[in-house]
Write a structure and sequence with these properties.
It is elongated and about 60 Å long. It has five helices and eight strands. It folds into two domains: about 5-65, 2,3-Dihydroxybiphenyl 1,2-Dioxygenase, domain 1; about 75-159, 2,3-Dihydroxybiphenyl 1,2-Dioxygenase, domain 1. Helix 3 runs parallel beside helix 5 (about 150-159) and helix 4 runs antiparallel to helix 5. The strands form two sheets. A four-stranded mixed β-sheet has the order 1-4-3-2. A four-stranded mixed β-sheet has the order 5-8-7-6. It is α/β, with parallel strands linked by helices.
């Protein structure tokens, strides 16, 4: 059964592949029901996979195989709070290594164009530091990074 509020993500025709990757990569993630189209539709035929129910880190999602009409953009992203550099590296490397693309300031895209912010908790603590000079140093360090380097952020925060 679909949750009352579910994130619907549009895919060309590979929602099941994406859901399977997310389930294998992120904790508290799984693939649920797979639904096939009961009839032909603009970008597919009866019997094709139409929707896939899945969960990403506890968040209910529905993957819709709607065809090539719409693409993901940075206007929507999953922000993943990581606890240490090993977790940051593992998730970043999994996304990039599976056909994804690196961006800046902890952002990357998976092979389906969905944006992810791999954000160490240490980064959030640094740029929200009540010592505004320390926060600014950490923020300026972040602005030079792709994948976040926690040691560099903490060094910048200390000055």
């Amino acid at each position: 059964m679909i949750s009352k509020n579910t994130i619907c993500l549009w895919y060309t025709d590979d929602a099941l592949e994406a859901a399977t990757f997310y389930a294998a990569t992120f904790p508290d993630s799984r693939v649920g029901a797979v639904h096939r189209a009961p009839g032909d539709y603009p970008s597919g035929q009866e019997g094709n996979i139409l929707t896939v129910e899945f969960t990403v880190m506890g968040i209910p999602c529905l993957g819709l195989n709607g065809g090539p009409a719409f693409k993901h953009s940075e206007a929507f992203s999953f922000q993943v709070a990581t606890d240490d550099q090993a977790e940051t590296d593992r998730l970043w490397d999994a996304i990039i290594g599976n056909g994804g693309q690196a961006s800046e300031c902890g952002w990357c895209k998976d092979k389906w164009g969905l944006s992810w912010q791999i954000t160490p908790r240490a980064l959030t603590a640094a740029y929200t530091d009540p010592d505004r000079a320390a926060a600014k140093r950490a923020f300026e360090a972040m602005m030079t990074m792709g994948k976040i380097d926690i040691a560099a952020i903490e060094a910048a925060r200390r000055g």
